[in-house]
Amino acid sequence: MATPKDLPDVGGFIRDLRRNAKISLRQLAEQAGVSNPYLSQIERGLRKPSAEVLQQLASALRVSTPAMYLRAGLLDDKEGQGVLAAIAVDPDLTMAQKQSLTQIYETFRRENSRLAEAEAATEAAEAAAEAAQTTEATARAGSGAGPAAAPSAPGTAPEAPGTATPAATGPTTPEGTPTEAVLESVAVTEAGPAPAPPSSTPARKAAEQATAVKTEQTAAAVEEEKS
């Protein structure tokens, strides 16, 4: 591919473009808005045109402004500008063909850049969605485990369950206090059930009979003393 070092200087580049377009030096100077002697000095390499003048000359010659800047050394041969310069100086192409090729080439490059940006945005969105799903799954796993129970201190005995005192329920006095019957019921409940009377045994019956006989004898003795 041709580079600025392989091609003529910008003055010769402008002169070749003007001759290929078959326009005179005066006509190009009028279209570019510069004087006739100034343009002649540019073509002979005696003057270095400014970026503004190069842009005006590129518009008048119907070539790409970046291609003109490249030939003037204002741009590096990057991002396909060398292709535009090669198209602009190709002697086998007409001016209309050069303009068409330049437009097609720049359209393709813009479309490729747009597609690359769209793909980058899609990849970024997918990565963000995947990160959000991972974060949500981690949060769910952490909440499902629940907090661990705190270990008891060494040497601490477990607390015994408290004994609930039965409430005094039942009829109350006009002042709202429980009646005596209710209090007795509560006392009996707190004391627990009364022990069952011991079952009768032969020894107990004999003792009871002996006690009864002795009681009768004592009563008889008392009666005798009174009489």
UniProtKB/TrEMBL annotation:
It comes from the Bacteria. Gene3D superfamilies: lambda repressor-like DNA-binding domains. One of its GO terms (cellular component) is cytosol. Residues 116-227 are annotated as: Disordered. Residues 14-68 form the HTH cro/C1-type domain. Residues 118-181 have a biased composition (Low complexity). GO terms for molecular function: DNA binding; DNA-binding transcription factor activity. Keywords: DNA-binding. SMART domains: HTH_XRE. This is XRE family transcriptional regulator. It comes from Micromonospora haikouensis.
